[in-house]
Amino acid sequence: MKPVYSRILYKISGEALMGSKDFGIDPMMVEQVVDDVAHASSLGTSIALVVGGGNLFRGVSLAAGGADRVTGDHMGMLAIIMNALAIRMEFDKRGVAATVLSGLAVPQVCAPFTQRAMIEARDAGHVLIFAGGTGSPYFTSDTAAALRAAEFGAQAIVKGTQVDGIYSADPKKDKNAKRYETLTHDRVLEEGLGIMDASAVALARDNDIDVVVFSIHQKGELARVICGQGTFSRVSSSE
Question: What are the φ/ψ torsions at residue 131 (nearest 5 degrees)?
Answer without folding.
Answer: -115, 170
